[in-house]
Amino acid sequence: MIQVGKDCTGCAACIDICPKGCIRMEEDDRLGHIYPVVDKESCVDCHLCENVCPVDNAEFISPDYVKAYVGKGSAEEVFSSASGGGLAILSRSLIDKGFVVYGVRYDHDLSVIHDRATTVEECEAFRKSKYVQSDTNHCYRRIGEDLKQGRKVFFTGVSCQCAALMNFLRQRHIPTDNLLTANILCHGVPSPKMFESYREEQKQLFGRKTIGFQFKNKRAFKGEINSRTAYIEYEDGSSRIVGIKEDPFLSFYYHRIGYRPSCGSCRFTTKQRVSDFTFADAWNYDKVDPSYDPLSGVSLILVNTDKASLYFEDVRDALNVKSISKEWALNSQGLFNHPTSLHPRDEEFYALFEELGFSGAVFKLTKLSLFKRVKRKVYALINNVMNTQ
After folding, report:
1. Where are the alpha helices (H) located in 134-247, listed in sequence order?
2. What ranges in the chain are assigned the alpha helix state H?
3. How large is the angle between the packed helices 370-388 and 192-206, nearest 10 degrees?
4. Cβ distance 384 to 234 under 8 Å?
5. Mean of the pLDDT values across residues 187-199?
6. Contact present, 162 and 181 (Cβ < 8 Å)
7. Which has the least CB within 10 A, 16, 286, 321, 369?
8. Spatial contact of 94 and 101, defined as CB atoms under 8 Å apart
9. What mean pLDDT is predicted for residues 374-383?
10. Higher model confidence: residue 367 or residue 114?
């Protein structure tokens, strides 16, 4: 029977592999991170849940095979994407070749879920970063069925999800010849509960419901592009851009508060890879080549397998690809070398959350001054008045 500890990544592969359906995911009592709970009466001790867990069973690809590139699509493509548009362009190319694509989108209430796309239009929902743990939505089981029926599949997710998928398919003895995987370099994930708490507070504060939240906004903010901003859309048709200093969820995320505990000891922050492709922002590449501006959007792309190389050839022109030093790529991004460092007072957040609510806890922990808190309240009041006239 699976033993759940702080190393659990919440990938939920154990649910999809269980032959008795006796595992469910439940939120913890603190920050809402999800963990598997086993119905012991139904469990038959088959140990499949243990074997599918990516924490101790991942198979890694040596960095010796890695080829590194930077690339970016058209201006429109880059603006619509979190980075340089690399993942979106690859997904579109694979759809044209008959692949089904699994990626992450918002649902109707801004919950973050994995889903399946068979058209380019459906893939559009997978664009942009969603800095919340996704509900994998039984995607491992669904991908297994697609592969067994002879379909070609492209799966995108974070490293632990890619490793979990491969474990699931191995345990089910499902061939992976028609499978391509891509992991997105991940700093860590807050829980859906925290994002929901934030949105509910914002609704109370501004008097309107949030229906769209774009992280890594690429519209000008205070005269310049700032990746630590978000573009928020509201039910009444209004919108605004917020930065890390005034928005509590951005502050929460970028201060690394409330991440899943396993993120602080992530076993996938290594030069070894677990997927055919790795996609990330090419941070710091402007120091190598000033003609590339990571803030406006440049994709760092690692091609980790021969299978990936084959399909990558078809998108090189659309991405204006440039081959770069593998050594630079694997050493320039901290997450290829060590896990995210969680906020030093992270453990205090729960008590503050219980006492002060989400925003109050964030501002208390990040020491937002009284002046800035009052300024934020005044801004909200002005906003409400303007939107009721």
Report:
1. 139-148, 159-171, 192-206
2. 13-17, 48-52, 54-57, 75-79, 86-96, 120-123, 139-148, 159-171, 192-206, 248-254, 306-312, 326-332, 349-365, 370-388
3. 60
4. no
5. 96
6. yes
7. 369
8. yes
9. 58
10. 114
Which of 127, 131, 134 has its CA nearest to residue 112? 134
Q: What residue type is assigned to position 177 of the chain?
A: D
CA distance 271 to 329: 10
pLDDT at 386 over 80: no
Integer angstrom CA distances of residue 363 from 26, 92, 352: 28, 41, 10
Return d(Cα 248, Cα 242) in angstroms, integer.
Answer: 10
Rounded Cα gap, residues 338 and 346, in angstroms? 19
Whose structure tokens read 């699931």? 168
Kind and range of the H or E run holding 134: none
Question: What is the rounded CA–CA span in Å between residue 160 and residue 182?
Answer: 11
pLDDT in tens, 74-131: 999 999 999 999 999 999 999 999 999 999 999 999 999 999 999 999 999 999 999 9
| Nearest CA among 5, 6, 2 for reference residue 261 | 6
User: How does pLDDT run across 203-257, given as a tens digit for each residue?
Assistant: 999 899 999 999 999 999 999 989 999 999 999 999 999 999 999 999 999 999 9
* Dihedral of alpha carbons 166, 167, 168, 169, sign: positive
Give helix 349-365 / helix 192-206 axis angle, nearest 10°: 50
Rg of the chain, C-alpha, whole Å: 21
Average pLDDT of the chain is 93
Q: Which of 369, 137, 111, 330 is nearest to 246 (CA)?
A: 369
Which residue carries 């090189």 as its tokens? 316
